[in-house]
Amino acid sequence: MNYSRTIVSSPRPEVPVGTADLTVVGGAGHVGIPLVLAFAEAGLTVNINDLNRGTLDILASGKLPFIEYGAEPLLAKALAGKRLIFSDKPAEISKTGPVIVTIGTPVDEFLNPVGKAVQTCIDALLPHLADGQLLILRSTVFPGTTDWLDSHLKRMGRDLKVAFCPERVVQGYGIKELREMPQIVSGTSPEAEQEAAALFKMIAPELVMVKPIEAEFAKLFNNAYRYIEFAATNQFYMIAKSAGVDYQRVLEAMKHNYPRSKNMPRPGFAAGPCLFKDTMQLAAFARNQFGLGHAAMLVNEGLVLDVIDDLKRRYDLGKMSVGLLGMAFKAEIDDVRASLSYKFKKILHSHAREVLTTDPFVTTDPDLLPLGDVVARSDILILCAPHAAYKNESLGGKPVVDVWGHLTGANVIQ
User: Fold this and answer.
1) Using CA atoms, how far apart are residues 248 and 259, in angstroms rounded to an integer?
2) Does 7 score more than 50 pLDDT?
């Protein structure tokens, strides 16, 4: 199975910027595109404001820059209905209608949030915003950021309505989940809250109204809790493996018709651009007294090392070629950001004779090889991302390390 896309540069539809009902800053990114298309489907004309001109050109051609299931028909419909405007400069944001900011909020080398990212973005937009406009923060922010931004704007003599409405969808399935999941809405004033609620009521089935700092904590707690869940099952997996027990059988026994364990995840490589980062943001807020979060990081990041140590005990890796199956950070998507597959690759280069990589979805890594080549040339395989395609492959009878419990067969090493 291969996922491919054709990148075609074509003239952008000529729709005047001033006619937009809504502007989404960073609207060509993973958070922005589902949101843009949901509002366009609801009947709004949306200005996609993004510094990445190449990505805007891809969208304007009717293609997607990455996998977002269910998005292509909505994109085609929005383009045909002239519902999308493409702009790549702060000066081109619409001066009327709400502005939603979806920029990323990274952590630095000390695992502390880069708070300056929000201020830098807003300060660049500010000369082009009109007093009275609704400004909505969408990406994860450090607790207190929304109220700080409201005060920052007031200190500069500006009067904008500031809201925080966090994004909480699963990557790749944003279109579906925006239709199905409640939207948390908060504002720094009654007017900001009411206008943000009216906007998101157009695309969400239910609204949950809270204060800004409550919304900020809700987003961080959601992601940190999920990260801790993965750490718990990964720790159980390592304990069972050390005892020579098949953890997948234990997990099946735990969950079978037992409602209190039904949501317990399978073990696997918990990665991606959000869970780890947001857990560390919460730890920074707690002055590094978030023991559960730090413990989760040690377990989830350490699982890669545990697998490699186990391989070193079983095999003479220095004489072996190791194939990594799946370089995306999770199944059925093409996003490699913060993927633990690359941690495997880096560390194995110090131990194995050769490391080979493959992924049916990823198109941004020139080192990737076809699956058949990796299988043929490898002595042992590691299932890094449990793509469905791998279930139907024989994998040449080679031994396969499968933490996920995704594969079956005598050659599978749990």
Assistant:
1) 18
2) no
Write out the residue limits of the CATH 3.40.50.720 domain(s) in the chain: 17-210, 220-413
How many C-alpha atoms does 112 have within 13 Å on its Cβ side?
A: 7
In whole angstroms, give the CA distance from residue 226 to residue 237.
17
402, 267 in Cβ contact below 8 A?
no
Structure-model confidence comparison of residues 218 and 2, the more confident one: 218
pTM of the model: 0.92
**Token pair for 369:** 């090889």
Domain at 220-413: CATH code: 3.40.50.720
CA 183 – CA 195 distance, rounded (Å): 14
Confidence of residue 106 (pLDDT cuts 50, 70, 90): confident
Q: Residue 43 in contact with residue 55, Cβ under 8 Å?
A: no
| Beta strands per DSSP E along 58-212 | 84-87, 99-101, 134-137, 161-164, 183-187, 207-209
Closest CA to 378 of 329, 334, 315: 315
Tokens encoding 95: 């001066």
Other C-beta atoms lying within 10 Å of the C-beta of residue 56: 21
Pick the CATH number of 17-210 from 3.40.50.2300, 3.40.50.720, 3.40.50.300, 2.40.30.110: 3.40.50.720
DSSP characters for 211-241?
-HHHHHHHHHHHHHHHHHHHHHHHHHHHHHH
CB 380 within 8 A of CB 320: yes
Residues 134-160 as b/e (b if ≥16 CB within 10 A, e otherwise) read bbbbbbbbbbebbbbbbebbeeeebeb
Query: Which are the contacts of 320, defined by CB distance < 8 A and separation ≥ 6?
Result: 352, 353, 354, 379, 380
Best CA proximity match to 255, nearest among 240, 223, 233: 233
Least Cα distance to 146 among 52, 211, 226, 64 occurs for 211
pLDDT digits (tens, 9 = 90+) for 305-331: 999 999 999 999 999 999 999 999 999
> For residues 40 and 117, what is the distance between their CA atoms, to the nearest angstrom?
28
